[in-house]
Amino acid sequence: MKRTTIIIMVLSLMVAALTQVFALSEIRTVLVPYSPEYEARVVSNLMNEYAKVSQHTLSYEDVRCNIKKLREWGMPEERMLTLTIDDVRTFLRDLTREGMHLTLSENEKITTKETTPLSTERELELELIQRILKEKGLTIEQFNSLINMSNDIDDIIAMSNAEIADIFSGTTTPPSKGLHTYYGNIPYFGGDGSTAFDTSINISSTYIQNYCNLSKDFSEYVLNRTYNNASTYSSQNIRFSYYLFGEYDNQIGGVHEGVDIHDANDSDRAIRSAHPGKIIGVGGTYGVVQVFDDFENWTVTYMHLDTSANGYSVDDYINRGSNLGNQDNTGLPSTSGNHLHTQVVFGETTNTPSGQNMTLSSEFPYYVLTWYLP
After folding, report:
1. Is residue 194 exposed (0-12), middle (13-18) or buried (19+ Cβ within 10 Å)?
2. Domain ranges in the chain?
3. Three-state secondary-structure class, residue 314
4. For the whole model, what pTM was predicted?
5. pLDDT (tens digit, 9 = 90+) per residue, 345-354?
6. What backbone phi and psi angles, to 5 degrees, belong to 259?
7. Helix 3-31 × helix 36-51 angle, to 10°
8. CA distance 208 to 241
9. pLDDT of residue 26
10. Which residues contact 54 (CB under 8 A, 6 or more apart)?
11. CATH class of 205-369
12. Could you give the 3-state DSSP secondary structure of residue 139?
């Protein structure tokens, strides 16, 4: 055998061996998520994606918080190493849709805040609902009312027609147009008995609990105070479930465009930002600080603050944890208690829907409010 041929064979074997080593290394990386090397690659990839849409740089810890949230909220692990900024934005928008109530309209079609394709699972659920309506002699409104009373589909199937008739024998008042009612206690002493929400809001007990949990996480961070797990409303140190997104207020005749929180132990509690971003609005009649996050393309409004001492101007850039001002009742009657109102709109805008009508215009806020939290 010629010397040249032997050399070529040896080199070929070496290349094959190195290829196998690299392949095994790659497999090992994928099969061992959460190792320091793997985590560094995941965070580095997302930081590179953020750099494509913003001149600002998030801290390594902020991006790690984003990764943690993606995992908690169901992002498949196999997508982590190749995430694009569009993947992240789409995932977060889809999460907001999940919080919007899927309900049957008069023509028995699904209506959501945005039109989305129906999954096979949802199509099967619709077929089941249609069968229940026919077998139980229910109208669409009656079916939704039963769901709002914390019954699931299996509960309704198990009910006799007589039991259903008894429920609707006059003891149940249909909600006003555009509203549906959650029957039960809102967690963390948020409300007793019945609470009306815009019909776009999913008000199963599981979802209501989730909204309150996320509101608690947000409140603990911005107020810099850990909830005391109080046994009574009056002994709570912070409150965060008493006026939720989409909740109806009969005093103003509108649905709530955000979430209200309140530090019960310190009426002038300092408020820190849960978001990094550019300030696009500050002060004004309602004491706002509006933070535009160009990484995820949303604007978060913090409202009713005393902003006199924060020193910010439009176009200033702040980090997560920056002091925005103090809890106050700026823009409200003097009889109103100090609290913080927050709401979310997508894009860079100072528009803040008023909540004084029956049109819910802001975005579903809970995932946005907690996106950067540790």
Report:
1. middle
2. 3-83, 205-369
3. coil
4. 0.74
5. 989 999 988 8
6. -130, 135
7. 90
8. 10
9. 41
10. 294, 295
11. mainly beta
12. coil
The SS3 call for residue 283 is: strand
Residue 254 tokens read as 């509108």
- Answer whether 332's CB lies under 8 Å from 307's CB: no
- The two structure tokens encoding residue 251: 């005093």
Question: Which segments within 38-91 are labelled E, that is strand?
Answer: none
> Do strands 259-263 and 340-346 pair parallel, antiparallel, or not at all (unpaired)?
antiparallel
Question: If DSSP codes are grouped into helix, strand and coil, which group holds residue 293?
Answer: strand
Which pair of structure tokens corresponds to residue 281?
């609005």
Evaluate whether 355 touches 254 at the Cβ level (below 8 Å): yes
137-146 pLDDT, tens per residue?
887 667 777 7
The residues facing 289 across adjacent strands are 282, 302
Q: Which of 237, 234, 214 is nearest to 226 (CA)?
A: 237
Tokens of 211: 């909204």
Give the rounded distance of the alpha carbon of 211 from its chain centre. 8
Q: How many CB atoms lie within 10 A of CB 46?
A: 24
Residue 72, judged by CB atoms within 10 A of its CB (0-12, 13-18, 19+), counts as exposed
Report d(CA 67, CA 35) in Å as an integer. 14
